[in-house]
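User: I'm writing a tutorial on reading structure tokens. Could you give me a worked example: one chain, its sequence, then its tokens, then a sentence or two explaining what the tokens reveal?
Assistant: Sure. Here is the example chain.
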Amino acid sequence: MQAGVIDRIYECGFVPDGWESVLSELADIAAARTGFLFVSSSRVHKFISSTDIGRQAASPFFQSGYILRSERFRRFTSAGHAGFLVEHDVYTDDELGSDPSYRDMLYPRGLGWSACTAVPLPTGDWFSIALERERSRGPVEQAAVRQLDLLRPHLARSALLAARLRLERAHTAAQTLAAIGLPALVINDSGRVLAANQFIEELQGCLRWLAHDRIGLKDATADKLLREAIAHSQLSASVRSFPVRDIESEQAMVLHFVPVRLSARDIFSNSVAALILTPVSMPAAPPVDLVQSLFDLTAAEARVARGLASGQTVESLASTAGVATSTIRSHVRGVLEKTGLSRQTDVVAMLAGLWSPKTTEQR
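And here are its predicted structure tokens:
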């Protein structure tokens, strides 16, 4: 079984859907009722459970941030142990009885013993596994801990591999936008910059770098809007665009906050948004494929959006395409919904700012 589970652990670094099965096997080793894997940032817990019952019971605690703030989480992560730990490694009996995580959350549910491990990731997050055992069974035995410890290096490598793959994707996204002349950053749920392209260095009058690899805007009004967009990024997948002033050159720009829409099951995908900064005085509309990929539009919606940005009317678009104006208006509604805008003129203004003067190719 050991060789088989190791193979499945490494497979999870590429295919995250396999974690539930791996967690079940780890829970069996610890004779646990359920197993949890979670990736936690400064604000957000994303988790997987080996059982539906465990997932339903734990959801309120994860979603409220309770677990992240708990003394239990702090003790297990701060121990700095490259292996699995049990309660008596980090608690005395008296401390266990008075800890709210045990007294109010685990004990009432018949749980109270566990084997846990935590791995810091290069994204600044924590990868943790908690195997929760029935309280009536007593502490997880050291024989089970030793067996889990044999698997722990493989779990850590798989988690690190997954995190690095996501960072590489963020870097690729930023460089792809650079290839068509767009300054861009990719950030996570706390506003930390995961990747940036070389054009960002040319915007020193707009951007300010903050502690812990975070980014801010020198334009105070725009900075407030950016903070709000980041704060609501977990609740809304809408694209947000707003003006930004370069305080050195007085150049007007537009910042596009474009959510990264990735599989909700991939808990390592903590890229939240691409920030794209462009001058507002762009005479040409962007290519159809760029518009389509940035905003998850259909091909027809992207052509309509680009047509509007280039100065065409609904009627002229319908005549060119040989379709009814109602069809074009339906596409316009789709564009408005997916870009998070409310008026055609807003779409035109936003797309006009997406095309860089560094790019001469038109489609």
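What the tokens reveal: Residues 355-363 have pLDDT under 50 and may be disordered. Residues 46 and 264 are 9 Å apart (CA to CA).
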